């Protein structure tokens, strides 16, 4: 029962599971036991059900939990204590409503905002939990909501459905129990992957009776967050069968290209691997808000000190002076005690002086944050038209922190890239294709308006394919042998599976977008890959069907960095076609290709300089006898138990020699628009960008070069790939020593850390540029084993200009972010577009979600969302910088005006016998922060800006003060406090001295207490209005209206409160009839007000003038440039886009893994449907091979994906790009053209 109430009262944080949902309460689950179709057995272990909960509150818990969270703010608790004190009549000289009304307003506004946010989380949870699934219950398939699914249930999934929970695949509609899944929600990869059921369970098929009788028992690992690992055992019918990750379907995956499958639930709800990787939902607070909590404590301490001083003064005054009046006042014995009088006076002054931190400050802060959020939502330059998506500030509490970001952690796929690859250029027999020239043979820049090649001659072409060089089509039509052989190779050497949905409507299921782009290019140029069987490949070559006999498939692996096929054409010729990394293929060319190789290498350098991913293509004609003898040895090697891989690689190496070079392809891995320019601009703002991706090392590096994060002119790129903690430590320490020199070893041995330096002295002195690339398993050693190793990793990473972490899990992404948060006093931002990014988005100070191809989970978990990565530049450098600057100016001014207002009571205390008498009347005290001074400071905090958006983007160094927290810190607070103290001193003593002996025009005295109060109050309102006018850099109509309107409102209310009308209606509330009229009609009073204003303003004005003139800030300099540009309208100078010529070329950046060739040639991934007969081969079969059985032309509707859930293996090095950003206005602002040194 206690656990039930605990579950109701404690908000969920993503890492806590209520009792009754964890197995074996009181101890960690060490091993999981699951029995199929036996809920009674599984219920004994109290496994979690399939319900998920990401919301924080329920209807019952909202009020207590939300109030508890709000009163964690020191200020709210402070005002609650003040409210209680004001309810005690002996010490209160102010009415209780002056505190309770604004306090309730703050609590209600915040509660409504929190309730709205949590409502959307509830709605999202409800949508997921109420999805329907087919569950096998009591021998029948029944529709059940996801939240009712339990461990041990057998579930039926159909094509394109989300996987309900973590399932053991039992059977499927595909041969051999295969099924295909998309794992974008887990690892961000859109290429499909293959899973396969155990042979013993795949025979169950779709037979409901057999599935209902299935009573296998699984013993496996407990719930964990390892996406790429699963270990377990299935016990059934007395036999044990090992279970691995390739047998599992994880929650968040989508079933693709598979009609149906059945699975057994192993993990459900919060115990699934997806939810284990989601991280905790934390309550995010900005650094300014945390500082305000500290400052409130300081102010409270200052308030107590002032109260003690005044209480002591009261005690002394009562003893020396006041005791003479006790007899006349007829006080009781207790009240006549001087010490007790001092005690009461202390609490009275605590109440009177509490306005140094008025509750309206927090109301105003929430209003400003809300306004800044709307500015982001309304910004048309953050609108992405293709998806009809506007930017959205999903939280209102973090806007100013957008102006202080130092580290950005970015996903790659879907965030930096579009995950779309396009056949862009090629080199065939020494001739490049892909450029467009005009009539004068001048190169023409290709744009969206450039006319495309007409592929109407090919009825099977893909209408979405775009190519602009018509000379390549002409070369195909006239029958140039090299060109046709080039595209024939592309159509034959791959692992793509075709699916013909209707006559002529071909869909290619490619395991990577690279392969799909190359096969689609061959298709459009007349070499259409039409069908495949385990023994044949059918092409349509220029409209003519041609079937090739597939003799051997020389599979890819990460060492070979190439793949080859050996086929027999209809003429009986045996040919080997090879494609791979150019450095690998060039080593195996025939000596006669030397000249062509040099020419092609030049072309490859040009392609790489444009950031394209390249492959070299070659072929070889094989002699029948030589091939037959080689094939016999290959068949023998395939049956060897020991060192099979080595023997096969030797045979592959032997046959892939004396190749004839055909040319090279250049594929563009399309980045999102404006990514390189955005990264360059953010780097100039001293923001470090780390890429955290699940992709393979080569792919991540390739994108790094494309984005200008990696460059050839960098001093060194460190690749950390150790497989043990010792190797990782050695590689990291070696990198650190290379950067800092041998002294680094001494620092490390002494236990000192670079990252612990608050001002990052070491980092600032590093002039050379380095990059760090670390893979997932090395990162795991660095993060999980040793604290010292973790520190070395952070030191090296912070010394490098670029950091790329590849092959990382969602949890590792969060761990990297947490590492920086824990050791660096810096604001972090994480940006991603998939469910695999949710964990780091929640962990970072600021989470940004991109609505991409991987669903909306990242958007739902984020604080801000928009449609493209390039908008991050505008979000930070414009909205973030403005929000931070506005909030800082608002806080400085607010503290100044309230110290100036409140401390007048302190000075007055020395002249009123420390009696806790207020200077101002109660109405002025109530209305000062609500009416007289609230709107001007709100207008400044809402609209003020030092320079416009164009110059904010053009000079990214303007962002630096936010990172260094220069505009509002403890020193700034102390400065504005001193300014307020000085102003309060002048406001009190100048009128006091001048009014003490002043007389009216008629000779009467004007120094009565109420006239004195009006003089000080009027001086105060005018002084703070002039001050905000000086503080405002950007005047709008709203600013003018609020400043002058507030002054007018003050005088209107002042005269109204002292009017005859209000006195006649409320004589006890407004007793001072005609006082304002009498006082403010005197010239002497206005002279006092003028002199007080001048004395208050002139010192600050002089200091500001001298500072701007002698030590101008970067903002001051840019402001002068902005003014000059308005007068002169100069031409913008843009940096030319410079193409980088590079020796590094991209490699075989496909998502391959060893084993696909075997899967294709075995036919296990194919569904066979009889169609027209395969044309007979004109040549007889090789004598070394047994003749294949007659086959029919088979259309393949299955698909090959990444076997066993492995990741991308890639061939060769990576490409590079060398573009210097130009000034481009893409809606995200302009890329910087120059820098100004402050």
From TrEMBL:
InterPro entries membership: ATPase_P-typ_cyto_dom_N, ATPase_P-typ_P_site, ATPase_P-typ_TM_dom_sf, ATPase_P-typ_transduc_dom_A_sf, HAD-like_sf, HAD_sf, P-type_ATPase_IV, P-type_ATPase_N
Principal location class: membrane
Region (Disordered): 1171-1190, 1202-1238
Membrane topology of the entry: Multi-pass membrane protein
Entry keyword annotation includes Transmembrane: yes
Residues that bind ATP: 411-413, 515, 556, 579, 613, 693-695, 807, 813, 836-837
Gene Ontology biological process terms, A to Z: Golgi organization; phospholipid translocation
Pfam families reported in the protein's UniProt record: Cation_ATPase (PF13246), PhoLip_ATPase_C (PF16212), PhoLip_ATPase_N (PF16209)
GO cellular component terms, A-Z: plasma membrane; trans-Golgi network
Taxonomic superkingdom: Eukaryota
Compartmental location: Endomembrane system; Membrane
Molecular function (Gene Ontology), one example: magnesium ion binding
Binding site for Mg(2+): 411, 413, 833, 837
EC number per UniProt: 7.6.2.1
Start and end residues of each P-type ATPase N-terminal domain: 34-100
Cofactor(s) essential for the protein: Mg(2+)
Keywords attached to this entry: ATP-binding, Magnesium, Membrane, Metal-binding, Nucleotide-binding, Translocase, Transmembrane, Transmembrane helix, Transport
Protein name in UniProt: Phospholipid-transporting ATPase
Taxonomic classification: Eukaryota, Metazoa, Chordata, Craniata, Vertebrata
Gene that encodes it: atp8b4
